[in-house]
Amino acid sequence: MHLVVLILIAVVLLEDRMPFTDLAVSQAGVGAHFSGWVPLVTVLIVPLVALGLQWLAVRSAERAMDQGDASAARAFARADSIMAAIPWIALLATAIATLALDWVPAVRRVVGDWPAVDELLAMLPAFAAMAASWRIHEPIERRVRDAALIRDLDAGVPISTWRSPTRFVLGRVRTNILLLLAPLLTVVALTELAEPLVRSAWPEFWTAGGRELVTLSVAAVVYLLSPLIARLVLQLESLPDGELRRDLQAVCDACGVRVRDILLWRTDQGMVNGAVMGLVAPLRYVMLTDGLVELLPRDELRAVMAHEIGHVRRHHLPWMLLMLVALLGLASFAVEWPAVTIDESIRHASWDLEEKLEAMVWLERGAAILAATIALLLFGWVSRRIERQADTFAVQYLSGTTDSPAITPDAVVAMSGALGSVARFAGVSRERISWRHGSIRWRQAYLERIVGAPANRLPIDRLVGRLKALALAIVLLFGIAFAMEVMNSPTATPDGESGADARYDAPSSVGDGKPGP
């Protein structure tokens, strides 16, 4: 779900952040092709049709489950599949409306260009479709939970009351939308507020890449403060003092990791998960859901805690940020050569000015989307290795508590069991593949293979070390290239535009009215 939300946010935010989109719009009229009703209907009708199909599937599943029909499992799976498709359908509708039907300019014409407000309203129909999908699906989720009560009572598992439909939907919205949306919109708002100040003071710097540098700087500050945003969004509270908290704190102390607090996320056992947040100790928190704390055995809970602390000890948070920047730069560089080739073909084509400028806009949009897609796919691969190293750290720590120089079976059983428990209580198949984490079965199979291996000489540690070195080298190279570009940037023209922007002015000296090469 986070991947869908991330792509949706990227599509809307990239729409008007192309190098010459604004100029093309003003000269070729791009952005005035469609009435505001056309994109509005697109972002509303397409998801509404899908939601209608989901409603029918859920009603069918409810009837089959109430009657004890043998087809109940198939009906539930069908409804679940439609629910999983709704976010992608909403994303597709918003992407078409944004990239082809001028959805964001239409929103902006109505509400104005307020910092982050127009972007939020442009994404709102897609988010509303996701929330409506969760509300439609809630009745069969409740039936599945009720059906598991007898099993949980027999197993001695703590029972919690089912949340109301409103709490169910709000929990999903906080977890799957607001957790990403809040910090990203904060970055957008602060960048837009800083733009007129920086642009007026240093116009050459801004046009030579200053916008990207300012955005990255703001993003770094927001990322540093993101644990405070997450604590507010998820309504986290301190884990009560007691034997459990002291046990988990002991894991932090043994690993030499300082945390500001261990936080409890109350979800009425609706989620079984944990996470570490924060780059620096004063803003570093470990977050555990109530489902994780109440449902997992103590040895598995310690394994999960060691996994989260492993992210801190291996410095995964800053390195993952650096790797993402490196991958975005690498992907952009890879896309640049074919984009430049196509750009030259457009300039020499026998088209009129408006056609050429609009083609350039689409080229820039396509290149940006392609580069982001490549970077995200590569980042998923890297992230899965990061998770594997955190799993490895957990079994290294647990093996070390027995003074064993090798990975012990008991340590692997604890960590592998924790992964299995998370999948079981969350109702997720062990074969289900996660973009950032991989499948539970994939992670468990790896842990089983390293039993008996020397704890301090594991291949995953060497692989992640090489990835860190490569990311640092890439960022340094692009940083040097960026600095050289800024120093060698052309001087501003009298009307305030840099030479790079001025070359896209409508040519007045070309006899056929078409831009030159």
Describe this structure in words.
The chain has 517 residues and is mainly α. Among the domains are: 147 residues, no CATH class; 194 residues, no CATH class. Helices cover 72% and strands 3% of the residues. The chain has a four-stranded mixed beta sheet, with helices on both faces. α8 packs antiparallel against α9, α12 crosses α14 and α13 crosses α17. It is globular.
Structural class: mainly alpha
Strand-residue proportion: under 5%
Low-confidence stretches: 18-33, 491-517
Helix content percent band: over 70%
The largest sheet has its strands arranged as 1-2-4-3
Oligomer: single chain
Radius of gyration: 26 Å
Major β-sheet, in short? Answer: 4 strands, mixed
Principal-axes geometry comes out as globular
Average pLDDT figure: 83
